[in-house]
Write a structure and sequence with these properties.
The chain is α+β, with helices and mostly antiparallel strands. The protein is 15% helix and 48% strand.
């Protein structure tokens, strides 16, 4: 069999020229180009109770090559960029960025092509709530120690951040306060990566007036009656006056302090007895809080009865 090389060479050359012509025509009508696009960066493989604390960008810049028709309608959602996080590792970890693209396109460049991410474990601990006061009540009033409910909260977040947190803080404004403050407040740690549960606490700040002194008389009280034929002539308190102290609004209208009742039922002699004073509502103190009460009695005088005969004779003489 004799091969006609001349004839075959012409055929091969024709095919080759046709391919070259097709490539040329395609390139002229739909030439190859490049395009850059921002693609959201995802992460996979992060173990439960671990979290990325830094170093992971929101997106990467991807340069792709393809024909103009493909590039003209290209959208970022057609790509996927991700990093694979090693399971159980903490600290700073460098991982490559992997990008997948639509068919017919070639990824030329990814920036950055690798990222260094910080990984930490998720922990929690119980911390106390510290309440601080801002401002001052008006003169004559005092803000007492705040009462917080609950007194502790649970802090949760990256182990490094949680280890640096010693307490949660709440601030109460007591400026110009003249009565008790009862608020529900948000507590914070100053670190946004640490969450608190519960996030709010109830705080009560008692506001009291200044303890002003005031001297008032003592009003002794008795109960019952002395024996038949006797009457009370005088009741004396020793001391006759005592000093009370407390907020002006509590003691301003107080004009006297009463004793607890002294029982004088059936007595036929003078009585001396130490007795407690009745507390004054709102007063901080009474000094002294006991007094000596003296009850003085005397025998009552009765008019002697005249014999019936004498009275009749007298009438007859008149």
């Amino acid at each position: 069999m004799v091969i006609d090389w001349q004839r075959n060479s012409i055929k091969i050359l024709s095919v080759f020229l046709a391919v070259i012509l097709w490539i040329y025509v395609s390139s002229e009508q739909n030439p190859t180009a490049e395009k850059e696009i921002n693609v959201s960066l995802e992460n996979v493989g992060l173990a439960q109770n671990y979290l990325i604390t830094g170093g992971l960008p929101e997106s990467v810049r991807v340069k792709v090559r393809g024909n103009k028709t493909q590039l003209a309608n290209l959208a970022a959602g057609e790509f996927r960029a991700l990093v694979s996080i090693p399971e159980g590792e903490t600290g700073e970890v460098t991982v490559p960025v992997q990008v997948s693209s639509p068919p017919g396109l070639r990824v030329v460049q990814v920036y950055p092509n690798e990222v260094s991410v910080s990984i930490d474990s998720l922990v929690e601990k119980v911390i106390p709530v510290a309440v601080s006061l801002r401002g001052k009540p008006p003169q004559g009033y005092t803000a007492q120690t705040p009462q917080c409910q609950p007194g502790t909260v649970t802090a949760k977040g990256p182990s490094k951040a949680v280890s640096e947190v010693s307490q949660a803080a709440a601030v109460v404004d007591v400026q110009s306060a003249t009565q008790d403050i009862d608020l529900t407040l948000t507590v914070t740690t100053g670190n946004s990566s640490v969450s608190l549960s519960p996030a709010m606490v109830r705080v009560v700040v008692p506001i009291t007036g200044a303890a002003l002194p005031k001297t008032v008389p003592v009003q002794p009280q008795v109960t019952g009656a002395p024996a038949s034929g006797f009457a009370v002539t005088q009741i004396i308190s020793e001391p006759a006056a005592v000093q009370i102290s407390g907020p002006a609004e509590a003691i301003g209208d107080v004009t006297e302090v009463k004793t607890k009742p002294v029982d004088i039922r059936g007595i036929d002699n003078n009585l001396v007895k130490e007795i407690d004073l009745i507390p004054v509502p709102g007063a901080a103190a009474i000094y002294p809080d006991r007094v000596k009460v003296q009850v003085i009695i005397k025998k009552t005088e009765t008019q002697p009865e005249q014999p019936p005969g004498n009275g009749g004779a007298e009438q007859q003489r008149q």
